[in-house]
Specification:
The complex is a heterodimer of chains A (170) and B (360).
Chain A (H helix, E strand, L loop, with lengths): L7 H136 L3 H23 L1
Helix pairs in contact in A: 1-2
Chain B lengths: L4 H35 L9 H9 L4 E7 L2 E6 L1 E6 L3 E6 L13 E6 L4 E6 L6 E2 L4 H26 L8 H21 L3 H23 L13 H18 L2 H8 L8 H47 L1 H45 L4
Antiparallel strand pairs in B: 1-2, 3-4, 3-7, 5-6
Classes of the chains: A mainly alpha (170), B mainly alpha (360).
């Protein structure tokens, strides 16, 4: 029966030892151990969470970058297009202005030519008149037989000269 | 002569191995003369396995180590007594000379029916006995060892704050986490943190004491958790904590259950008995399991000597199987030490959980 009967000395020592053990371990061992375990778990959890967040942010940034890149590409295209247009416009304008300038120049040149031609013609005319008078004088001196015939001769000469002039002009 | 660390480690291991086998070899030679010595006066005194086993699992006033040539070698333990008339007395148990001589009015009496020595006053008067018996010494020693273990672990946690566990700390941490996550959290429920220090203490106390019980010689060998006094105190702690942490719902469930009034006279006594029955079962389970474990282990050893009395050769051959069985039992014991600590802690946690459960 003594096997299943609690014994005084054992109960006393056990109560004291175990009570002290519960108290001391609770205060100096379990408290710091459980606290640091909890802290570590929390830090791991928060680290995992922040890693997940960073991942999300990264993805967000990536998509942002993609969008930015897309936009930049679009802008570049637009700029290129505009530049092309501008170039074409400038070329066209330049062409146009060159053409008009050219035309103007040509016209002016034509006018000049016409003017100088007229001057030349006038001069020629006066020279021819001179020559004619000289010629006439010579002819008159030589063969002033018929007045009529002389006049016709002179006119024929002038006509000839006019025709030649027009021929050269053309 | 340059050795790589691996080679060095290997030689260390083999040195360890050889020294172990050397120790066992020496032990065999140390034991064998005592066997001879025992077999010589065998005509007078027959080997009594029941007596041997029972005296091993019982408490004692000295810590028996071995017998050499029929003479017992043991560590004397302090006897502390308080007599209402004679006052406090404290002396070593060796003063009794194994029950042969009285000292200061006390003597050790061998009780045949209890298989052990009992401390009694010579004049038969009653007194208070606070002696550090084998079990008490073991409790105090193991408690100090537990404290040293967990102080060092706690220090490691402080030193390596926020870092991964290392060394001894990483051996203990999974067990702490096991108690916290597998026992306390699911069994107690929300308020598990209040009870966790107690649950951890009770778990490691039972487990480490059980483990020391497996060790057959000095630092171990005491049948601590297989002693009803110890399991009684452990269960008492569980009972007291359960009663004091019981909330309104718990007491209402016991004293004013949701049943017709005429059932109260039957149900309330049953419920009140249940309060005490639960820790009572805890007490008995741990006590019976560890006691049985010790008795079986010793029983296998006894076989050697029982057969050795008929013939030495039979004893030797039986010894081979006995040792094999004992090794097997030892392995099983390691499992049992853990399981019993687990069961005690788990059930305590369940009772705490019942006491603190909120109405749902």
């Amino acid at each position: 029966m003594d096997l299943v009967t609690p014994e005084f000395s054992l109960v006393i020592w056990m109560t004291i030892s175990f009570g002290a053990l519960v108290f001391i371990l609770g205060k100096f061992a379990w408290k710091p151990i459980l606290k640091s375990l909890k802290d570590r778990e929390e830090s791991i959890e928060s680290a995992l969470k922040s890693a997940e967040e960073a991942k999300l942010q990264m993805a967000q940034m990536k998509s942002d970058n993609e969008a930015l890149l897309q936009e930049a590409r679009k802008e570049r295209e637009i700029i290129l297009k505009e530049a092309k247009q501008m170039k074409e416009q400038i070329i066209a304008e330049a062409k146009k202005s060159a053409e008009t300038e050219g035309a103007k120049l040509i016209e002016r040149a034509n006018q000049e030519i016409a003017k100088s031609k007229n001057v030349a013609i006038e001069e020629l005319k006066s020279q021819i008149a001179g020559f004619s008078i000289e010629l006439a004088e010579k002819l008159i001196n030589k063969e002033l037989a018929s007045n009529e015939e002389q006049k016709r001769l002179i006119e024929n000469h002038i006509k000839d000269l006019e025709i030649k002039q027009t021929a050269t002009q053309n | 002569m340059s050795k790589t660390p691996i080679n060095k480690g290997l030689t260390e291991i083999s040195v360890l191995k050889y020294s172990f086998s050397l120790i066992f070899f020496l032990l065999f030679f140390l034991i064998s003369p005592s066997l001879k010595a025992e077999s010589e006066p065998a005509h007078k005194e027959k080997f009594q396995p029941g007596k041997m086993i029972m005296s091993h699992v019982k408490d004692a006033y000295d810590w028996h180590i071995m017998d050499i040539n029929g003479k017992a070698i043991s560590i004397p333990l302090p006897v502390i007594v308080y007599h209402p008339e004679r006052g406090f007395d404290m002396f070593l148990s060796s003063k009794f000379h194994h029950g042969h001589e009285p000292y200061k009015g006390y003597h050790l009496v061998y009780k045949e029916n209890q298989f052990r020595y009992v401390l009694e006053s010579v004049d038969g008067s009653s007194f208070y006995n606070f002696s550090l018996t084998k079990n008490n010494t073991s409790i105090v020693m193991v408690s100090i060892i537990i404290m040293l273990i967990f102080f060092s672990v706690a220090k490691a946690y402080k030193r390596r704050e926020g870092m991964a566990p290392k060394g001894f700390q990483s051996l203990i941490e999974p067990i702490i986490l096991f108690v916290r996550d597998e026992i306390a959290k699911p069994s107690v429920g929300k308020k598990y943190e209040t009870f966790l220090p107690f649950l951890l203490t009770i778990f490691f106390f039972i487990w480490i004491n059980n483990l020391f019980g497996i060790i057959p010689f000095f630092p171990g060998g005491a049948n601590v958790t297989g002693n009803i006094s110890i399991t009684f105190v452990l269960a008492l702690f569980t009972l007291v904590i359960t009663i004091f942490s019981g909330n309104k719902v718990y007491w209402k469930h016991i004293l004013l259950p949701d049943v017709p009034i005429w059932m109260y006279p039957i149900l309330i006594p049953i419920e009140i008995m249940g309060i005490f029955l639960k820790p009572f079962v805890l007490m008995l389970r741990l006590f019976a399991n560890i006691l049985a474990e010790h008795i079986i282990a010793l029983g296998f050893f006894s076989l050697i000597f029982i057969f050795g009395e008929t013939s030495k050769a039979v004893g030797m051959s039986v010894g081979v199987f006995s040792v094999l069985f004992t090794v097997f039992m030892g392995l099983l014991s390691i499992l049992v030490t853990f399981i019993q600590a687990y069961v005690f802690t788990l059930l305590s946690a369940l009772y705490f959980g019942m006491a603190t459960e909120e109405h749902h």
